[in-house]
Amino acid sequence: MSRATKPSAAPFVPDTVDLDALSHAADGCHGCDLYRDAEHTVFGAGRRSARMMLVGEQPGDQEDRAGEPFVGPAGKLLNKALDAAGIDRNLTYVTNAVKHFKFVPAERGKRRIHKKPNRTEIVACRPWLIAELAAVQPDVLVCLGATAAQALLGPSFRLTEHRGELLHLDGEVDVDVDPDVFATIHPSAVLRGPSEDRDDAFDALVADLTKAAAAL
């Protein structure tokens, strides 16, 4: 990619609402440099007719190797939280704001540690997220973590100030859908937190998901 070219996935996104076609096209995305080190493009997964869409930050180590979203430890915890909130994950659509794994190189055989994507990478990948929103047309959108929330609600959004509130998409997100939006923590935040606080953090995540489900 030329240094003079603003990174963007837009040239790689086909004009379609067919999720299979979008996923296939995303495999060849070179909209930013994250594709260079990742093993797979990790597109979203779930029902085309899902009423609830959940958006995380980016795929992790296991997701990058499998090419599927939310299959690692955070995904397992998300499944548990969704179940506790009375939400069938099989009836949702799950994806990430960034489709390639950004990580710190690790020693051979070790798990690679994720590195937070920067604003340029988030914005570059947003056309895929907008295409998914247009295809799925969810009634409720749940942002899991600050990165996902800022991708869809603007860079000034603060999760600590607006967690659990009913929100709407940022004006820069040009898509013909207006879901009820809720922001909560990413499941990985529960896993990273102090062990003595994890039960409370998990219960708070479940409470946020329950509130989102009530909007359906």
From TrEMBL:
GO terms for molecular function: 4 iron, 4 sulfur cluster binding; deaminated base DNA N-glycosylase activity; metal ion binding. Keywords: 4Fe-4S, DNA damage, DNA repair, Hydrolase, Iron, Iron-sulfur, Metal-binding. InterPro entries: UDG_Type-4/5 (IPR051536), Ura-DNA_glyco_family4 (IPR005273), Uracil-DNA_glycosylase-like (IPR005122), Uracil-DNA_glycosylase-like_sf (IPR036895). Residues 43-205 form the Uracil-DNA glycosylase-like domain. Pfam families: UDG. One of its GO terms (biological process) is DNA repair. NCBIfam families: UDG_fam4, UDG_fam_dom. Belongs to the uracil-DNA glycosylase (UDG) superfamily. Type 4 (UDGa) family. This is Type-4 uracil-DNA glycosylase. It comes from Rhodococcus opacus.
